[in-house]
Amino acid sequence: MIGLDTNVVVRYLVQDDPDRSPIGSALVDELTEAAPGYLSVVTLVELYWVLRRSYRVDADRCADLLTALLDAREIRVDRDASVRAALMASRGGLDFADAVISELGRAAGCDYTATFDRRAAREGAMRLLGPRSTS
To answer: Which residue segments constitute the domains of the chain, with CATH numbers given?
Structure first.
């Protein structure tokens, strides 16, 4: 198994670097079920962020690309079930990183994930923290 860094996967997906894209593609194309590539949760969150921010890929297309990686026989993804659940939540409007944080907490047995992020709380993934009453 070979770990794949975000920049390798970006070059493979985007094909924007005439020097590095062919090298990344050759590596990914050589992966097999018996000798797979490995994507960590951190790599997937970074990948989503880079595609959205740097390449202006819309959220649904990002979710499609990550789902394709999850479904690829020659790729192993850390916390596959949590990532899939987070992708579903992101399709519903939740930020992917927030969805991953929430899903990983749920998988670890957390009752909830506390946040100051109103949007994440509004989407139901996390519980908003506010000022405590002083009685």
So the answer is: 1-78 (3.40.50.1010), 80-129 (no CATH)
Taking CA atoms, 70 is separated from 29, 83, 131, 132, in Å, by 16, 9, 40, 42
Determine phi and psi for 77, rounding to 5 degrees.
-120, 130
What does the alpha-carbon distance between residue 18 and residue 1 come to, in Å, rounded to a whole number?
Answer: 26
- Residue 56 main-chain phi, psi, to 5 deg: 55, 35
Angle at 3 between CA 94 and CA 125, to 5 degrees: 15
Contact by Cβ (8 Å): 63, 91? yes
pLDDT in tens, 17-32: 999 999 999 999 999 9
The Cα–Cα gap between 71 and 76 comes to 9
pLDDT at 133: 47
For the stretch 32-62, pLDDT in tens is: 999 999 999 999 999 999 999 999 999 999 9
Q: Residue type at 8? A: V
**Distance (Å, rounded) from C-alpha 30 to C-alpha 2?**
11
